[in-house]
Design a protein that fits this description.
mainly alpha
């Protein structure tokens, strides 16, 4: 059983420091998903290894992140999100130091796998802590808007930071900079963040957790290997087939479980299902196009890592404003309107980028890039709020794990799919795919999410 805490430990706390503490941890998780991309050439020259090794440096992080999110959400519900958040942030900080000290590529990949596992532990608990600290629905919507804004800033600034640190010092600094930020976040969390109780009698549903790890892990592995082996490779097709079998085993296990890790009944709610679908689609489009544009600016336009990162700055210019406005609009008008505005705006920007070629003047790219970044940042907090509000409070960690699993799988699919479409250095096909993902998300919202306030749709 989890030890009961005093009322002073579990009541909501006012002020900015609790939100700062939670957002610092989430900032580290998101920025490490993008900052390393522009340091890969320097990293490869320093540690050796071919393109396959460099892909695992990026995708190993996403692999463990995606496969462990649901398990981590259930763990947070069991023992308490405060304990799990602190453990995840501590492990992430240690793993970051190990990445920076890695003597060879194998050690770096291993440390990245641990980083991803720590991120999976940290993220669901961050949303559960936000919910506990803001019991009022409107205040919670605004807090999630700030949380989403931090994610948007991290995603947009990651390439710039990675390029600048690599050019100015070393790729190792991309990882070392996480250490002081992680320690500050841990200190603030211990001192200022509310400590909600865990539900100690709830089982962890280990059979279903193993099935979902197998399904998501094999799917991610197949998507990664498809870049080098081809989509019709026996290894890739076999991985996809076994992933499908594991997913079926997961569904069967959850139907039989007395205390399922992910209650399938949640998906009977249109808002819960729609919010998760939107989370997958926006990450597919956004992170897929970010990967393609990072390579386009360096390989086609021959920019340095720093200049390539700066070329992506317009995607982040409006992120903070968009996330703030998203929280405000969600509190007043509900998540449906907010998501529709963000998804249509992002789709328009991404479709406009299909006309970009090697000789297109850069100023013509700025408005479409800004629209894509605004659309992502405006949509994500509302989609997250939709999922969290559609679940009962005692399943906040599970709901957070579900939406973040959907988002991370969207990122993996987007990088694999849009990266393949953009292999020749052309933007038309991958940008059309990214725009189609956003537009499909808008259709999902129109069909599945009703209007209303910040509460359940």
């Amino acid at each position: 059983m989890v030890t009961l805490r005093s009322d002073s430990d579990i009541r909501p706390r006012t002020g900015a420091l609790p939100l700062v503490a939670i957002c610092l941890g989430y900032f580290l998780v998101i920025i490490d998903a993008t900052a390393v991309n522009l340091s890969l050439p320097a990293l490869g020259r320093d540690l050796g290894g071919g393109m396959g090794v460099l892909q695992w440096v990026v995708d190993g992080y996403t692999l463990t992140f995606a496969t462990l999110l649901l398990s981590a959400g259930a763990l947070g519900d069991r023992v308490g999100p405060h304990r799990v958040f602190c453990a995840g942030l501590s492990l992430f900080t240690v793993a970051s130091a190990a990445c920076g000290l890695a003597p060879d590529a194998g050690a770096l990949v291993a440390a990245r796998l641990v980083q991803g596992a720590a991120a999976a532990v940290l993220v669901p608990s961050s949303l559960a802590l936000l919910q506990a600290a803001h019991p009022d629905a409107r205040a919670r919507a605004r807090a999630v808007g700030v949380w989403g804004g931090v994610a948007g800033v991290a995603a947009a600034s990651g390439p710039v930071l990675g390029g600048v640190l690599t050019d100015a010092a070393s790729w190792r600094l991309v990882f070392f900079i996480n250490v002081p930020i992680g320690l500050a976040g841990l200190l603030f969390t211990v001192r200022h963040v509310v400590r909600p109780e865990g539900h100690g009698r709830r089982g962890l549903d280990l059979g279903a957790q193993l099935a979902v790890v197998g399904a998501l892990g094999l799917l991610t592995f197949a998507l990664i290997e498809a870049r080098t082996r081809g989509w019709v490779s026996p290894v890739v097709l076999g991985g996809l087939a076994v992933a499908a079998l594991s997913a079926a085993a997961f569904v069967a296990a959850e139907r039989r479980a007395a205390n399922p890790m992910l209650p399938l009944g949640l998906f009977r709610g249109a808002a819960f299902s729609g919010g998760n679908a939107v989370g997958l689609l926006i990450n597919l489009g956004f992170y897929g196009q970010l990967f393609v544009l990072s390579l386009f600016f360096q390989d086609v336009r021959r920019m340095s890592p720093t200049l390539a990162g700066l070329a992506l700055v317009p995607e982040g210019i409006l992120v903070s404003l968009a996330s703030y406005l998203s929280g405000r609009m969600t509190g007043r008008s509900g998540t449906r309107t907010t998501m529709l505005i963000g998804l249509v705006t992002g789709a328009a920007g991404l479709f406009a980028l299909t006309a970009v070629g090697p000789g297109t003047p850069y100023p013509l790219l700025m408005v479409p890039l800004m629209a894509a970044g605004f659309g992502m940042a405006f949509t994500m907090p509302a989609a997250t709020t939709t999922v969290i509000e559609a679940a009962p409070p005692e399943r906040a960690g599970v709901a957070s794990g579900a939406v973040n699993t959907a988002r991370q799988m969207g990122s993996t699919i987007g990088v694999a799919l849009l990266g393949t479409l953009g292999a020749g250095g052309h933007l038309a096909a991958p940008m059309a795919g990214a725009g189609a993902a956003f537009l499909t998300g808008a259709l999902v919202v129109a069909a599945m999410v009703r209007g209303g306030g910040a509460g359940p749709a």
